[in-house]
Each structure stands twice: as structure tokens, then as C-alpha cells.
Amino acid sequence: MLCMPKGLSFRTQADNRDPQLHSFIITREDGSRTYGFVLTFYEEVTSKQICTAMQTLYQMHNAEQYSSVCASSSCSMDSLASSIDDADATSLAKLQRYNSYDISRDTLYVSKCICLITPLPFMQACKKFLIQLYKAVTSQQPPPLPLESYIHNILYEVPLPPPGRSLKFYGVYEPIICQRPGPNELPLSDYPLREVFELLGLENLVQVFTCVLLEMQILLYSQDYQRLMTVAEGITTLLFPFQWQHVYVPILPASLLHFLDAPVPYLMGLQSKEGTDRSKLELPQEANLCFVDIDNHFIELPEEFPQFPNKLEFIQEISEVLLQFGIPPEGNLHCSDSATKLKNLVLSDLVNDKNGNIPSNALNMYELLKGNETIARLQALAKRTGVTMEKMTISTPLTEEKDGKLSCEELELRDYKLNVQLREVFANRFTQLFADYEAFVIQAAPDMESWLTNREQMQNFDKASFLSDQPEPYLPFLSHFIETQMFATFIDNKIMSQWEEKDPFLRVFDSRIEKIRLYNVRAPALRTSNYQKCSTLKEAAQSIEQRLMKIDHTAIHPHLLDMKIGQGKYEQGFFPKLQSDVLATGPTNNNRWASRSASTQRRKDRLRQHSEHIALDNDMREKYMQEARSLGKNLRQPKLSDLSPAVIAQTNWKFVEGLLKECRMKTKRMLVEKMGHEAVELGHGEANITGLEENTLIASLCDLLERIWSHGLQVKQGKSALWSHLLQYQEREEKQEHSAESPVGGGTERRKSDTGITLPTLRVSLIQDMRHVQNMSEIKTDVGRARAWIRLSLEKKLLSQHLKQLLSNQALAKKLYKRYAFLRCEEEREQFLYHLLSLNAVDYFCFTSVFTTIMIPYRSVIIPIKKLSNAITTSNPWMCVSGELGDSGVMQIPKNHLEMTFECQNLGKLTTVQIGHDNSGLLAKWLVDCVMVRNEITGHTYKFPCGRWLGKGVDDGSLERILIGELVSSTSDEELGKQCRTPPQQKSPTVTRRLSITSLTGRNTKPNAGQIQEGIGEAVNNIVKHFHKPEKERGSLTILLCGENGLVAALEQVFHHGFKSARIFHKNVFIWDFIEKAVAYFETSDQIGDNEEALLLQRSSCKTFCHYVNAINTAPRNIGKDGKFQILVCLGTRDHLLSQWIPLLAECPPITRMYEENALLRDRMTVNSLIRVLQTLQDFNIILEGSLIKGVDV
């Protein structure tokens, strides 16, 4: 199955019968790999029976083809020997010419292969040995010794070269050299990276490499098996020090195509048939798929994946290495017009030169590449890198055999050098990115046994601290990467290394980090995104050159064996039947590679146990292969849908169990991170979550849901399996709704109270949420729509409920999914929905914060205190809603209406509402209790408490107020309905702050001096803590300044303490009256200071204070006195002036007339303490929301 993935192949003398080399890989249970190298060639069929049967099959096939041509219908049957071009199949003559076999005229050949199995990827050495063996079979002269001698020699007498040494052994005709890197060098990799870069191109390769690092599903696609293997091995080699942990099948046999249904990350290779269009290739899932069409130099990338750090500089450094070896960075030169031009040039020189020698031609490389559509990019890249390519010498010596050998060795050495230099560049990137990783590894267990027992519950790596230490541009990639299985395994290996022998990859990586520290000492805090090039390229190339030039060991020569005479007789063109008894035994204890280190095996076993919930279990892979072998005799391919329920259960329970376990881990991580410090106190690990990390975890959840919905699909429709399911559900539901519609229905959605001032209940509807997403013109793809719908459902705390509703339609689930699919395993499905339900415990804004440019409908309701004022004002009211992302602008509220809807660009989390009116009409005065605003898409409802009058001659005379919002938490429709109704009066804002309505509601107990000072300290402390959080974690500064327990409220308490009377001659007196009296005093008097410097400072502070107060008074806004005081505090905080203004106010004469002697402002110690507390805000750059200070020009 691996040596001949397509099975036997027949050819005639008219077909191409060149030998083909390909390789394969077998991954064992302990994670170790075995490599196979296969040379496929064609041998003449000597059996007359087979030839006669083949002719009969051809005649039957041609008759069927002819009838289909006559009927003008296309035939889909594959040809047995060579395919017919449908476009040319227009006549029987052409048909017979392209697709015929005549036993009397044609010679029939059948494919045969020689395979060599090795423990390490010695590709070049194995390739040479197999080619020499093939030459021995096809040459006119028999080989010097029987073939058994050479095979016995390589099996039993050629040892593995020791690390850091080279070994020479002998093939049939020539010696062969192989080498092995030393213990501190990069691990062995013999696959030529030159081919990988030529096949994909540099930029494509870096993108695919990033997808592999982020553990997406990677599907390689090519007609050539060796290309699949070369690209797969090349990319996984570049991952050092990390290792791919998931399904790895570089060549997927036809009988195992159902592996593509695996809902796990994979790296697989699929052979393409000639002429097959990519669009006809049906894949189970494409939402998270990176599709690599190797032959056509084309890749399809998943949506929304982050770029590799310093990608441009990284590409530039690699291109410099490639250009040194004459490889254009865009790759694929051999397929371009310029390559044809180059080939023709070489051929014309060959014709002109009678001796067959081509002279070295100094060619202008850019001249050769003229007409190539990517040349502009290449030139720009070369210019940036500083590489000059004015002239490039291209020499292709087709000389005599000796020179040819030399040339071949030189090319091989160049490939080895290029390989190691490219790998050094990639390894250097990881060394720079993770130079300080050890500082963040958490060694939580005292011994290995306890660590293994509690592995899943333990935090092994301080992710939050690690990310906070990284440069900002690296975060999108790193936050995704540290969540991967390959990174988790790397950290596990690090922890295990304190009890066991170090993993070889880890040992080399750690030694490189040590080297960096010796050469350039830098503190972890000084992380920058400056790109540092690799400095070990020459050194790496020299070490490999020295090994190949100076041979360290030579193996025993092949020799005659004790064989039976007459067997294995040489016959040109036919591989002889080997004497198995001679090859069955060899010298004892020489199979060195079979015995592996016990500690390494133990470690790999344990790590496999902990990662099998993500990786495809090797036992299961073996079962698939056994199954394929046993069913291979049947004509049709084995598919899971054809098997018995028992076999399906056996082969799929690992997938189902793995998906469920992954869901449990992901939801737990999201909950723990979001809950923050509470979770830490409960013993759940890390302290906080960044906005970026939260986004990464949610993207990871989206990916998991796509994989679950892709598992066991009957027929794939569209790139997103989840969205396809949703669309079909929507179609069915809308048909039922349409048929069930009646004239009576329709008005049940809105539920209003008798007074008509309640927010109507927002109906919970899966279909409605889908329509919201479908109306978003910014999203163009099904994958994008599915992710938006998941984010919206998660933000609304309806994800589990919606998915349960979706899966409740069992008829649809049976139609879409095979019986072994995850979504049809009832018990696991219920557990999965339960895990998702746990996410309702925390608030997410993952939809609002990501889709910032969409238009969103909002609904607002103004709730007045009807017992004390009119429900509706006769004036013209207006409102402006502001959020973290912008504001709605001033909107007129329709007369005699308390409710309105409006649509505007996403405002983000709502922060303030400005409400006011023009004071016209007889009943202009208005006592507003609160304003409710709801986002009609996400359902988030905000309450903006007021509890104040709007109108001239009442309260503080304000016609306009700025209200600060708070999110109303709602867990059900009923609760939401309750919370939206008019709240009881005791829930109105704090009475001590609302002096104007004390006569209406009765005085509460006034806070004492100690409580007021504590309130000030707490308000300032909250602002300090706000600025010490990472920027993306900060909440709303507006609430900390103007909210219920904010700085403005705390300072109001200070200014109210000891205020002589709130009413003088039946007229309300406010703090602002005291402020204005102080300004009048400052403007008319000359201050007397202790010294000149203090006097100047005091005059300057007085002048600034007067300027700010006058600017607020003259602003074109109808703000009341309390509102003006709020603006003054906000501006003073922003410009760091509060600590200068407080002593001025405490010492001005009006204070003695307006405040009692025991007032806080008249106590020197209290004032000094207040000044010190306010000075702690000096260090912060405070930016005020525009709605707070609109129209005030200072």
C-alpha cells in the first residue's frame, strides 16, 4: 500500500517507462519514525495468460468508449494503461491510436518496485543504492557479485554513522557516502529544501509554514508522490525545535481516503489525477484547511490567521541565502517561460560545440527572467536585500563521465549546504522568539509521578506573563502558537528533563539559547521587535563540508555469500528471485538502530498518552490499515459508511472522545481566564486574560466547532459545515413559519406594560441571529458568517441553547450526517452542549469588539418618575448616545413618545447618554428616573440612572444632563422584563448626591468624615489600578470618573460636608455657587504669599482656575450647576490641576461664610491629605470621553 499506493500499473513499449523514486514514512506508537525509499520500474510481462486477459479487457473497454463517443456522452471510466483526452475522443481512429493493446504487436510491461527501509532519512544514500541496484538489473553485463551480496551487505554490515561522523559504504558500482550531524547540530534532514522552495516559492512556503505552526489542517496535492514527501518532510524539518504532534501521512493511499474526514489537525498528501480540476475535489471540511497545490504553485489559506513575526525581514534573509545558491525566491523557475529560454540557449550551444561541452555563459539573470510576471517583486526584494545580480554565470557541463561524477558530488554538497543554512535561519527565528521561555515555565510538581498524575489540571507555562513580555507586533501569532499541542509538548519535555534525559531537540535548542546569552546579554524586559539575522551560516556549512570531504568510517565491502549454485541466474531486464535463506540471517547484535533508549521510549509513551485526545491514535491508524488490507480484495473502496456499526463504533470513539475532551479543556480555559482573580483564589491558575488572548481562545473555539460539524458529513456543501447546517435548518424553519402564518399572529413579539414605557422583550431566535449575520455586508464568506454567528451567540449567552435547538431537528441531522458522526452520538453531544453552557457564567463582547464597522439598530426608552412629574414633556426632547467606538450624534425624540429606535455604526460598549430639551411649552419640566438603551442585535441593555429634573427654575436649572451607563445583567427574558420596568424609588441614584430631590424622598444618613475620606481614596485607587492594567484589559474610565462611586461623586461628598444650608431664602444653593464666589474673589483681590515664588505659583493657579470656570459657564450648553461641577472635576483631573485648586478653595474667604467650622475643607490636615491623594494621578495620561466636555473650550 505504501510502496505502490496506486497498486499495479501496466504499460506498453509506447508509454513512458522511466524508473520513479518516491519515499514514505511510518510513525510508530512511541512516536519514532521509519523511512521507506522506493524505486518503481517496469518489467516485461512474460505470462501469455496475462497478456491475453489484458487484450480482452482493452477490447471491452474500447467498445464501451466507442459506444459512448457515438452517443456523444462523456465517459468517466479510467483507462487501464493510459488516459484518453476527452477533447480528442471524437473518432474511433484516434481512440484506438491513444488507447490500444495488441498482443501480436505490443509488448506489455508491469510495475515492480525495490524498497529500502531505514531508521533515519538518508535519502541521498538510499536513492544512489537503489539506482545502482536497478542499473545492475538492466545493464548488458551482469553485476560483479550476485545482488544478494549487496543487499546482505547493506542490511547487516553497513552500520549507522555515529553522530557527527561520515561513513562510506559500497553499492554495486560506486561507493556511497552518508553523514550524520553531531549532538549539538540540527537533526538529520536529507530531503532537498531547494526543491521545496522551487516548488512552492518563498512567500507561499512561509505562509504554509505558519499554518503548520498553528496546527491547521494541511493538505498537499500533487501528481508526483516524491513531491508530496519532499514538501511534507521539508516543512516539518523547519519546525525545529518543535515537532508536529498530529496526523502525519505525506502520501495518503487511495484505500485510506476517509482519513480526510478526521476532525483533527493533520498534514496529509493526496495524489492528484492528471487533468483533475481543484473545484471537483470534494473535501470534508475547508474552514480551517490550508490547501497546497504543489504542481500549480498555488495555495489556498484559511481565513483570519496571523502572520509570522517579522515576516518581511524573515523572507528577505531567506531570499539572500537562496540567491547565493542561484535559486530565485519566487521559485518554480523550471516551469516558466524563462526556463524554456534558458534550456533552448543551452541546447543551441550544445549543437554548436562538436565535443559536447557547453561553455560557461555570463548571462544577465534579469534578462532571462524578462516577461516573468513576478520579476518586479523579485527585483524589489533583491534591491532591499542588497544582493546585486547584474551577471550570473550559468554553466552546465555535459562532459565525460569523470567530470559528471564530480559535478554530481558538487551539486549534492551544494544541496547539503543550502539545507543546513536555510534550517539555521529558521532555527534562529525560534531561538530569538523564545530566548526567555525558561523564565515562564512553571515547575509545579515535586516529582515525575505527581506531575504525570495531575498533568491536565496543572498550568505548565505562564502564558499571560510571557505575552506581556513580548513586542506588540508578535502578539497575534504568539498568542495562537502557545495554545498549540506542539508548544505544549515542548514545555512538557522541558519539565520532564529535570527527571529524565533531555529530548534531543530540546538539548540542542537550549544549548543555542545559552550561546546567545553568552554573546549578548539582554534582560527579558528589553524585548524589542528588531530583527536579528542568523550569524552561524558559514560555521554550519563548513562542518557539513568537512564531514563529506574527510571520511571518518568505511563499511565492509560486499562479498560472496554461501549461496546455492544455479539460483538467481542473471537475466537482463528482469529482477531475479532472491535467495531468502541467505538474506534472512546476519551477524548478531548488528541491528543497532532497533534498540532505542528506554528513557526516551518511556517519555514518548507518556507524552502520547497525554496528547492522544488531539492526535489520531496510532492503534486506530493500524486498524484502518488492517481493515483496508482485508477489504482491498473487493472491487469497491472500503468506506466507513459500508462497515458494521460495531466497527464504526470502534474506529470512531477516539475521534468523538477526543473532540469532547478538547471542548471541555477549551471551555474550562475560557472560563478560568475570563474569571480572573476569583479563579486564582479557587486554585485554577493564571490571573488575567488579555483582549488578544480572549480573541485567540474564541477563534480556537470557532475552529473546534467547525471540526465537530465536519465530522461524519454525508455530503459536503460549502466551505463551512456549520453554516451549511444552519442554512438548511433556516430553510426548513422558514417554510414551516410560512405555512403556519395566520392573520391573527404577528403581534405577540412586543410585550408592553399598561403605561407603555417598557422595553419590549427581545425574542430569543436562532433564525433571527442568522439574519443579523446575513445582513452584514462586510462578511463575504460562509466561514466568516459561521464565526460571526458563533461570536454573536456567545456574546448573547445563547450558544449552547442555539446549538441544542439546531440539533433538535433529528431528521435534518440524519440527512446530513453518517451514523458514526460526533453530532449523532447522543451522550457525547449532550456533554458537549453542557460544556458550552458553562460559558454563560461570564460576559463576552467578542461580537461587538470585532465587528466595529457594522450598522446596528438600537432601541431606547426614557423612564420618568410619573408620581412626581409629567410622564411626557411638552418641550422638544433630544438625546445623544455614546460608546467606546463613537456616538450616535444628537437625535430628536418624537413628541409624546418615550421610546425610539435608531440605527448607527457600532458604538461598542455604551458609556454615556446626553439627554435634554428646549424648555418650550407649559409642561416643560421633566423628572427623568433613567434611560434604557438596548443593542437590538446582541441584546445588551444599558441603564443610565438620572433621578434629576430637566427644566428651568427647578433642581439646578439644567436643560441637559450627562448620564453614565451600566450594563444590566440579564439571564432570562423574564428577568430582562423586570429590570426594564420602572425601578422603585430607593433604586434611584444616591440621595446624598442628588440634593435637589431630598425634600421629595427624605434624607438618608449622611456619610461621616471617615467614610468620605475612604471614598476619595477608593475612587483614586480605582483610577490608578485602571492605568496599571494592560491597555486592552482596561474598562471604562468615564465610569471611574463620573459613575456612582467615581471621583466626581467622592469630591461632591467632600464639598457637601459642612455646607451651611442647601436652601437660602427658599432658593437652592449648590457647590457651583461656592465655586463662582471663589472665582469672583480671585478676580478682584491680590493674594499675599510668604515669598515671591509661592505668590507667582498661586497667581498662576488662580488664573487657570478662573479661566476654566468661566469657560464652563460660557459654553453653549444648558448644563446645570451640578453638571458644571462634574465638567470642572473632569478637566482638572485630565490636566493634573485638582491638587493645585483644592488649597486655593480651602483658603479663600467665601469658605468661612458657606461652610461650618468642622467642614472637611476647613481642616488643614484633611486638605493636605486630599492633595497628596490627588497628586497620585499626576503620572497618568487621562483622556476624557468627548461627550463629557463637549463645547467647553479651555
UniProtKB/TrEMBL annotation:
Question: What is the name of this protein?
Answer: DENN/MADD domain containing 5B
Cross-referenced PROSITE patterns: DENN, PLAT, RUN
Write out the annotated subcellular location.
Membrane
Q: Mainly localized where?
A: membrane
Similarity section? Belongs to the RAB6IP1 family.
User: Where does the UDENN domain start and stop, copy by copy?
Assistant: 1-501
> Can you name a GO cellular component term?
membrane
Q: Does the keyword Repeat apply?
A: yes
Q: Where is this region: Disordered?
A: 586-608, 733-754
Keyword Phosphoprotein applies = yes
Q: Name one GO molecular function term.
A: small GTPase binding
Q: Tell me the superkingdom of the source.
A: Eukaryota
Pfam families, A to Z: dDENN, DENN, PLAT, RUN, uDENN
Query: What does the UniProt keyword field contain?
Result: Guanine-nucleotide releasing factor, Membrane, Phosphoprotein, Repeat
User: Which intervals hold domain RUN?
Assistant: 692-852, 1038-1187
Cite the record's Polar residues compositional bias ranges. 586-600
Query: The PLAT domain covers which part of the protein?
Result: 856-964
